[in-house]
């Protein structure tokens, strides 16, 4: 199964992706982790990404797509994967579909974790206090949420138009959300 996991910052997407990867025995492919690993390993793509990151800029869609392709070509991803953190915008979604069609691994499921904005802000504020993270101020979180809404809403619509989108309420305990996700995936695989 090939899953694209979508959700706002603080929606629990990373936590749920890790649980799902363990449950389905599929690799959890986080674009943030891909970048950090490539930079740390000093790969050719990692060196390119590091130059951009050191300037405080976002890594280009081309570099990200190359990193994803490189990762998807590894043997553990042949049976499927859970993609977390990509695509973030419509251009990335289209580029990903082109890549996946070329390697004959199209998306089976796009799963959107829906959460209330105020709940996310409270969740991130709590995490910031627990982890002493000064970058997670309410103002910064609200800005991230606006960017997410502006850029990712078209991605959600894109997958919905393809009949691939399922939505899950991301509120409640980690286990409650995980059970909802498993229920959606079971229904999808039974149909």
Q: The CATH topology, please?
A: Rossmann fold
Binned strand content: 5-15%
Distance between the termini: 14 Å
- Poorly predicted tracts of residues: none
**Share in helix:** 55-70%
Secondary-structure element order, N to C: EHEHHHEHEHHEH
Number of domains: 1
List the helices and strands and how they pair.
Layout: E1 2-7, H1 13-24, E2 28-30, H2 31-41, H3 44-54, H4 61-72, E3 81-84, H5 90-102, E4 109-114, H6 117-131, H7 138-161, E5 165-169, H8 174-190
Parallel strand pairs: 1-3, 1-4, 2-3, 4-5
Helix pairs in contact: 1-8, 2-3, 2-4, 6-7
Descriptive report:
The protein is of the alpha/beta class. It has one domain (2-186): P-loop containing nucleotide triphosphate hydrolases (Rossmann fold). It is 60% helix and 13% strand. It contains 8 helices and 5 strands, in the order βαβαααβαβααβα. It has a 5-stranded parallel β-sheet with strand order 2-3-1-4-5, sandwiched between helices. It starts with a strand and ends with a helix.
Features:
single chain, 191 residues, alpha/beta, Rossmann fold, five-stranded parallel beta sheet, 5 strands, 13% strand
Write a concise synopsis of the structure shown.
This protein has helices spanning 13-24, 31-41, 44-54, 61-72, 90-102, 117-131, 138-161, 174-190, and strands at 2-7, 28-30, 81-84, 109-114, 165-169.
């Amino acid at each position: 199964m090939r899953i694209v996991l979508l959700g706002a910052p603080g929606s629990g997407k990373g936590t749920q992706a890790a649980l799902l990867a363990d449950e389905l025995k599929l690799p959890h492919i986080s674009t943030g982790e891909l970048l950090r690993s490539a930079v740390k390993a000093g790969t050719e793509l990692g060196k390119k990404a590091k130059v951009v990151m050191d300037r405080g800029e976002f890594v280009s869609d081309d570099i990200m797509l190359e990193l994803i392709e490189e990762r998807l070509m590894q043997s553990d991803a042949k049976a499927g994967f859970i993609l977390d953190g990509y695509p973030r915008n419509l251009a990335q979604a289209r580029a990903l579909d082109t890549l996946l069609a070329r390697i004959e691994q199209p998306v089976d499921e796009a799963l959107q974790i829906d959460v209330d904005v105020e709940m996310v802000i409270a969740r991130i504020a709590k995490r910031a206090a627990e982890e002493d993270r000064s970058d997670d101020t309410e103002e910064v979180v609200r800005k991230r949420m606006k960017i997410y809404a502006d850029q990712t809403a078209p991605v959600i619509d894109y997958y919905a138009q393809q009949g691939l989108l399922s939505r899950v309420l991301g509120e409640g305990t980690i286990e409650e959300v995980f059970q909802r996700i498993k229920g959606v995936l079971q229904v999808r695989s039974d149909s």
